[in-house]
UniProtKB/TrEMBL annotation:
Membrane-spanning intervals of the chain: 27-49, 183-206
Gene Ontology MF terms in the entry: phosphorelay sensor kinase activity
The name this protein goes by in its record: histidine kinase
Localisation per UniProt entry: Membrane
Enzyme class, first EC level, given as a word: transferase
PROSITE patterns: HAMP, HIS_KIN
Keyword Kinase among record annotations: yes
Gene3D superfamilies: 1.10.287.130, Histidine kinase-like ATPase, C-terminal domain
């Protein structure tokens, strides 16, 4: 018969469930409580065994001490000889629980009754003051020994007779075990009840998490509102962090959706113009007009290339806004490197380009990639749409902020400064994507700064301000 192939799947499913169980908060809490209760039960069990043994020892010691006293009271002198009349009821009472051995020694050291080989290590001085109890071994069995001395009148002796009573310890251990087992039963029942109560309490405590889970699971992918379910105090900070994350995610998604919509709209225009120019080129014979059409196609292609590049730059800046790691950046070095790279080798007009670094090179913590893109866009914007004969890049700083300023002698902007930093808003009549200043503004905000635009004495000043 062929073997079933469901075995590995079943094993994998069991392993997955066990893995989920180990990661369960409920399982972890109950496991910790179970471990604590088990440790407590062990400690309480040891304490119960000690207390039971002590109680059994004390109970049987009272019987043994009483038996030794009663035997001593029945020791007397008759005809010049020490005699003992053992109390049968006392010995019978002791014998009901264990084996009993006794011995009576007269003041001369002669055993007058009992087992001659029954020995006691008790100090004779202490036995004259009262019953002395000790553990010993008799006939291969552990015994508890009570030793007592009684003063009698026997001429020619020290007048002290010694009474030794021994009892095996089986009944003591049995009583200690019985008491311990009963205590362990109570401890076990209480531990189980405590564990069940803890499991129930944990289930009740985790119900708000279940409500939060259901609320989130029931939402649409674009529903990033704050969680409405009231969280317990212990997880309120977690829920607030989730709400804050969803708020930032919602803002990022709104920015990206608006960016995609604007980008799609902006790209359609140069693509449609390029398509029209290509159709004209196809239907036009070789002539002067054909050369003009090729020139316009080249212009449209360059415009589309710039637009695509700036769209990608804008997307990159938005992406790096919260993800990029900051590093110390020397603004003098950054501005010098970007200016050298951003200025083309040949320009359509003569422009005097100058760079004025700060006296003390300012350093800011920021994202070097984003700052290079922002400054590159400002310089390109000034060269393409502003400067007629002069471009000046200046680096400055004070105690709280640093800045890089791009100044040109162009005609300025037709739009207001607030409109200029909005994507796809063109500040001049010339062609452009309207993204250069928007990218620079995004980067400034990313670095806790701002982008300012001003017009002074025929000069347009665009300043990228950064917090130090």
């Amino acid at each position: 018969m062929p073997r079933s192939r469901s075995g590995p799947c079943v094993d994998w499913g069991i392993s997955l469930r066990l893995s989920e169980l180990r990661l369960s908060l409920r399982f972890r809490i109950i496991a910790v409580l179970a471990a604590v209760l088990a440790a407590g039960a062990i400690v309480l069990g040891a304490a119960a065994w000690h207390s039971s043994s002590l109680a059994a020892q004390q109970a049987y010691d009272r019987l043994l001490r009483g038996g030794a006293v009663q035997i001593a009271e029945n020791v007397y002198v008759q005809g010049g000889v020490v005699t003992v009349d053992p109390p049968v009821s006392t010995i019978a009472t002791l014998a009901d629980y264990d084996l009993v051995f006794y011995k009576v020694v007269d003041p001369r050291g002669i055993v007058v009754a009992g087992y001659e080989d029954l020995a006691s290590d008790a100090d004779p001085v202490e036995t004259r003051a009262g019953v002395v109890l000790e553990d010993g071994l008799y006939q291969g069995q552990p015994v508890r020994i009570a030793t007592l001395a009684r003063q009698i009148d026997l001429p020619g002796t020290n007048n002290w007779a010694t009474i030794v009573v021994a009892q095996t310890t089986d009944a003591r251990r049995a009583l200690a075990r019985d008491l311990t087992l009963k205590a362990l039963g109570v401890i076990a029942v209480m531990s189980v009840l405590a564990l069940l109560a803890a499991a129930y309490a944990v289930t009740l405590a985790l119900k708000p998490l279940t409500r939060i889970e259901r609320e989130i699971a029931a939402r649409r992918p674009d529903d990033l509102r704050p969680i409405e379910a009231e969280p317990p105090l212990e997880i309120r900070n977690l829920v607030e962090a989730i709400d804050d994350f969803m708020r930032r995610l919602s803002e990022r998604m709104a920015i990206m959706q608006r960016f995609i919509a604007d980008a799609a709209h902006q790209i359609r225009t140069p693509l449609a113009a390029l398509d029209a120019q290509v159709e004209i080129l196809i239907g036009t014979p070789a002539s002067r007009r054909k050369a003009d059409t090729v020139k316009r196609i080249h212009e449209r292609t360059a415009e589309l290339g710039r637009l695509t590049g700036q769209l990608l730059d804008h997307a990159m800046v938005i992406h790096r806004k919260d993800a990029a790691a900051t590093t110390p950046i020397d603004l003098n070095e950054l501005a010098k490197a970007v200016l050298a790279k951003a200025v083309p080798l040949s320009l359509p007009r003569e422009i005097d380009i100058a760079f004025v670094p700060a006296e003390t090179s300012p350093t800011v913590d920021g994202d070097a990639v984003s700052l290079r893109e922002a400054l590159s866009n400002l310089i390109d914007n000034a060269l393409t749409h502003g400067a007629r004969s002069r471009l000046l890049v200046t680096v400055g700083a004070d105690e709280t902020q640093a800045w890089i300023e791009v100044a040109d002698d162009g005609d300025g902007f037709s739009a207001s400064p607030a409109e200029l930093i909005q994507p796809f808003v063109k500040g001049t009549a010339s062609r452009g994507s309207g993204l250069g200043l928007a990218i620079a503004s995004e980067v400034a905000i990313m670095h806790e700064g701002k982008l300012t635009v001003a017009r002074e004495s025929g000069t347009t000043l665009v300043r990228l301000v950064l917090a130090r």
